[in-house]
Specification:
This protein is of the alpha/beta class. It has a single domain, classed as Rossmann fold, CATH 3.40.50. Helix content is 42%, strand content 20%. It has 6 helices and 7 strands, in the order E-H-E-H-H-E-H-E-E-E-H-E-H. Helix 1 packs parallel to helix 6 and helix 2 packs across helix 3. 34% of the residues are buried. It binds flavin mononucleotide. The site of flavin mononucleotide has 16 residues, from helix 1 and strand 6.
């Protein structure tokens, strides 16, 4: 049985384009393969910023952890378990101040865990996750895939790097961008993403 994990993070609720296209991607993949779908809405249930309890708790022996550390590490473990159980991960991220929403950053801060999702050997850092397909859906008001603003996209490249760092290097990127230049431009941008996503999912069939 294929497991799909859908992670959305936009704080814009039903107006969110990244959540819309990420959900559509997950639903269409699910319909195709009869997969199970687990949903984690990081805007509705944001992981906390990581704390000293989490940092110290990660390296403490399980039986020596304080109750704060047990709670903090337990949440991280639950998030990692969800990722590990997934064959396909669909990630939605809508640009906030040139980067991903802080809710998504907090999620990565929990799952990027030395000895659990990445390690080091003589060759340097090595991701410990493998064999998963990731669909990364990024939305932005401006255009960042090309042109003079490409240098200021601290969202898509950053997320792709974080994913690769923990071993998730099979990443298909779906962008919806250029939506702030009026209703017609927004409609054209959404139509372009719909067409692109359709082609991506056809290819995946
Ligand atoms: C608080 C806030 C900050 C934003 N910052 C940027 C930004 O830095 N650059 C940009 O191009 N668009 C920015 N936008 C526009 C969003 O990236 C755009 O609405 C995108 O569709 C958001 O993703 P979503 O639709 O999944 O919520 C911002 C929007 C909000 C609400």
């Amino acid at each position: 049985m294929t497991n799909i994990l859908l992670v959305t993070s936009s704080p814009r609720g039903t107006a969110s384009l990244s959540s819309r296209f990420a959900s559509e991607t997950a639903e269409r993949l699910k319909a195709r393969s009869g997969a199970t779908l687990i949903t984690r809405d990081l805007a509705a249930n944001p992981p906390p910023h990581i704390t000293r309890a989490y940092i110290d708790g990660r390296v403490a022996a399980a039986e020596a952890r304080t109750s704060d550390q047990v709670e903090a590490v337990g949440l991280a473990q639950a998030l990692v378990d969800e990722v590990k159980a997934a064959d396909i991960i669909v990630l939605g991220s809508g640009m906030i101040n040139f980067g991903p929403p802080s809710q998504l950053k907090a999620w990565f801060d929990h799952i990027t865990w030395p000895g659990v999702t990445f390690g080091y050997d003589e060759a340097g850092p090595r991701g410990l996750l493998s064999g998963k397909k990731v669909y990364l859906v990024t939305a932005a008001g401006g255009v960042f895939s090309q042109g003079e603003w490409a240098a200021f996209d601290f969202q898509t490249g950053y997320l792709r790097h974080l994913l690769g760092f923990i071993g998730l290097s099979d990443v298909e990127i779906v962008r919806v961008e250029g939506t702030v230049f009026g209703p017609e431009a927004a409609q054209a941008a959404i139509a372009a993403t719909e067409a692109y996503l359709h082609a991506v999912l056809e290819k995946a069939a």
